[in-house]
Structure formats: C-alpha cells, structure tokens
Amino acid sequence: MGDLMISKRSQMLPASPIRKLIPYSDEAENKGIHVYHLNIGQPDLETPEIYFNRIRSFSGVDAYTNSAGLMELREKFAEYYKKWGIPFERDEIIVTEGGSESALFAIATVADPGDEIIVIEPFYANYKAFAAILNVKLVPVTSHAENGYDMPPISDFERVLTSKTKAILFPNPGNPTGTVYSPERLSEIVNFAARHELYVISDEVYREITFDGLKAHSIMEFGHYDNLIVIDSLSKRFNACGARIGAFATKNETIFKNVLKMAMMRLSPNRLSQYGAIGFFELNDSYYKTMVKEYQKRRDIVYEELSRIPEIVISKPQGAFYFAAKIPVDNAEEFVKWMLTDFSVNAKTTMVAPLSGFYVTPNSGKDEIRIAYVLKEKELREACQILGLGIRAYKSERKSSKV
Ligand SMILES: *Cc1c(COP(=O)(O)O)cnc(C)c1O
Q1: What spacing in Å lies between the alpha carbon of 205 and ligand 1's midpoint?
Q2: Could you report the average pLDDT of every consecutive run of 10 residues in the chain (403 residues)?
Q3: pLDDT score at 399
Q4: What residue ranges do the domains of the chain occupy?
Q5: How many H-runs (helices) and E-runs (strands) does the chain carry?
Q6: CATH: 3.90.1150.10, 1.10.730.10, 2.160.10.10, 3.20.20.140. Which one for 9-46+285-394?
Q7: Residue 206 and residue 219: Cα distance in Å, rounded?
Q8: Which atom of ligand 1 is nearest to the CA of 174?
Q9: d(CA 248, CA 88)
C-alpha cells in the first residue's frame, strides 16, 4: 500500500481558500456562536418561482440532452445576448454545467500544459484549480486596493508576456473586487490581445449586477471576435447556483468546434435544470431592477459601516456583490480564524474570506479580505459592525502582546 502514488496534478490542486476555513466556523457554531457568513459568494435571494414550476411540470424521460444544451435554451441565451447588444447566435453558444465548466473548457481549449494565461489578481480563486488540473500556469498582473482594483496599465501586461502566453482571463464585474472595467480599458485589452495573437476570456457572470446606473460592457463590444471567449452563468443573476447552468460562447468557429468535443465528452448538461432555466428568460426588467436595488442598498450599508474602521482601504465597488478591503492587520487569514475562535459580540461573530487565496504572487493580499454582502439589511449591518469591533480588538490585543 505504501507505494501507491497519486498524481502530482491532484496533489498540486489548491483547496478552496474559502472552504478550508469552514472547520473553524463549524467549531464556533458548535460552541453556540452565531456566525454571520460574509465569506461565501452564494446569493441569499430566492430563486424565481418560474424555474421550479417548469421543473415540476416536467414528465417523460429524463434523458441526455444535446451536448451543446437544449436547443430552446440556447435560443433563449441568443435572444438575451441580442438584448445586450452582444452578437451571439444560437450556434455559437454551448450550455455548460455552470460558469465553472465553461471556464475549464476555455482554459483547456486555448492552452497546453506549460502554457501561460495572464490573470489580473486578485481574481476568482477557482481559476487556480482549473489551471492546476490542466497544468497551465497563471501569470499575474496585480491590481490595487488604492485605486479600486482597476485594470492595470497595458505596460504591466506587456512585461509578463512570453512565447507561452496564450490568453488573458478575468471576471468583469469582478469577484472578489466588485470592480467594473471601463470600455476604454476593455478596448485596450482586446487590442493588446489581438496585437499579440492572444485570446481574451471574459467571465461575465455578474453582467446585470452593476450600481449607480453604470453598465457593464461585454468584451464582445470591441471587435476582434476571433480572439474572444465569453464565460457566462445563470447562478448569480438568477440566484440559482444549484442549477449548474452556464454558457460558453464564442464566434471563433475552431474554438467552438473543439469545445463542443469537450461538451460531448461529458455527454450533456443537467436536463431538468436546463428545462427550468428556460423560464428565467421570461423574467422582465423589473426582476433585474429589484435585485440590483437590493444589492446596491447592501453595498451602501457595507460601505457606510466599513468606512468607520480606522486605517481601512476601500472604495465603493460598482458591481457584483463583493467588497475587497485592505485592513490594518498583518495576516488576514489569522485574523479571520481569530474572529471565529476568540471573538464574539453577544454570542455573534462574522466570517469573511481572506484575500491571499485570490492571488498567485506569493505573500500578496495578506492584509486584505473579501466581504460578500449576501445577508439582509439588518443582519448585514450588524455583521459589519462586529467585523469593525473585531479589527479594533485584534489590533489592540496584538499590540499589547508585543509590548
Ligand atoms: C460564481 C462564479 C463563477 C462560477 O459560477 P457557477 O456557479 O459555476 O456558474 C465563475 N466566475 C465567477 C467570477 C464567479 O463569481
């Protein structure tokens, strides 16, 4: 038995930086402490009823669907994109098991083992696992809390370019940053990619969730279609993370054909979810408006509460449902653990995500956290207040232990 080996690939696979702290919150909860979970990006809003109604009325055979997804759902996606001015046709869209599978397919199609993909850190942490399982190297350019994690200048991308660079991958609006890139920056990055024969893989799962009247621009607005891949998902915009319905879309026929083979390899996305998901496309603008209003209200609450914390570095995010913040501690991961093991206010504490796992550069993001505002107003405010009290208490405890 002792000689049985497992692959380096699986050994190198990073555990989720968020999920690995769950034992600490379980322990706190076992002690009777109520933990406010601002650590996981899972919306708390209800999934629209139409999804369940459609699934309930299903009968017949729960067979495989076409590997590219139900024709009707692909058509709905295409109509939806048209409304956004995004020129995808039905036959340029593959239904995937969430944005996750779409991202995996995208990386697998553009990069071979040893190839490089440029990411803008901090970035959606699961990209690391997708790249690791495919033996693709993620090469970071770094964005900074001080300017709202805006896209770094093109010169930063130029600096990390090698003969192995195949693509640039980023979420927009951003997770964990909530940053929405301007059309100018997006246009620059597309032109840069075209100039160097790279792909741009744009993860647009938060497309609708933007604030203050700002619009998120799709990468598809900037031409050079052959270079562009869009990752999409219904998880966040319809509060349907469990449905596992996403999309892979590109106008590049070669890419499409090759991704279709990957879709065939896993036979089919979940039929019932696809069937239910068709219903989401019947929701009108008021659905989105209500959702965005709710998130904007929450963002404002978090901003108001965090602003009271001395020495914190934040800017108001313009999209998604996250805040990334630089906090006055040396090691945010230790701080997050401490909040669960050593701190509570009236038997309540707050859990956030340390941001270091969202970077690839070693020792980066050590004093940063992500807050997902996935609680209702009153609880959210209290959770942020407890976080603020925790930061103060942690700092003074450290100070006194150093003396
Ligand atoms: C949540 C998320 C995904 C993946 O979501 P799925 O549930 O797999 O659709 C992909 N990208 C970003 C940026 C996310 O936040």
Answers
A1: 6
A2: 84 81 94 95 91 95 96 98 97 98 98 98 96 97 95 98 98 97 98 98 98 97 97 97 97 98 98 98 95 97 95 94 94 96 96 95 95 94 97 88 59
A3: 75
A4: 9-46+285-394, 49-282
A5: 13, 12
A6: 3.90.1150.10
A7: 13
A8: 13
A9: 11
> What pLDDT is attached to residue 402?
59
Query: H or E segment at 284?
Result: none
Distance CA 171, CA 86 (A): 17
- The DSSP letter of residue 318 is -
d(CA 179, CA 143) in angstroms, rounded, equals: 10
To test the ligand 1 pocket, which listed residue (180, 205, 237) has its Cβ within 8 A of the most ligand atoms? 205
> Quick check: pTM over 0.90?
yes
- Spatial distance between the Cα atoms of 259 and 246, rounded to a whole number of angstroms: 14
- The single-letter code of the amino acid at 308 is R
Does the beta carbon of 203 sit less than 6 angstroms from any atom of ligand 1?
yes
Ligand 1 mean position, distance from CA 345 (Å)? 33
Sign of the alpha-carbon dihedral angle for 381, 393, 123, 34: negative
Q: How far apart are CA 300 and CA 298, in angstroms?
A: 5
List % helix, strand, coil for the chain (3-state, nearest 5): 45, 15, 40
CA of 310 to the centre of ligand 1 (A): 32
Q: Are strands 116-121 and 165-171 parallel, antiparallel or unpaired?
A: parallel
Q: Give all strands (DSSP E) within 76-226, no chain letters.
A: 93-96, 116-121, 137-142, 165-171, 199-203
CATH of domain 49-282: 3.40.640.10
Closest by CA to 77, choosing from 65, 64, 89, is 89
What is the distance between the alpha carbons of residues 328 and 388, in angstroms, rounded to a whole number? Answer: 11
**Structure confidence at residue 1 (pLDDT):** 56
121: how many CB neighbours lie within 10 A of its CB?
22
Length reported for the chain:
403
Dihedral angle over CA of 6, 9, 11, 14, nearest 10: -150
Q: How far, in Å, from the CA of 245 to the mean position of ligand 1?
A: 10
Give the pair of three-digit tokens for residue 35.
Answer: 């933990």
The token pair that represents 336 in the structure block: 């997050």
For residues 173 and 209, give the distance between their C-alpha atoms in angstroms, rounded to a whole number: 8
Distance (Å, whole) CA 143 – CA 140: 9
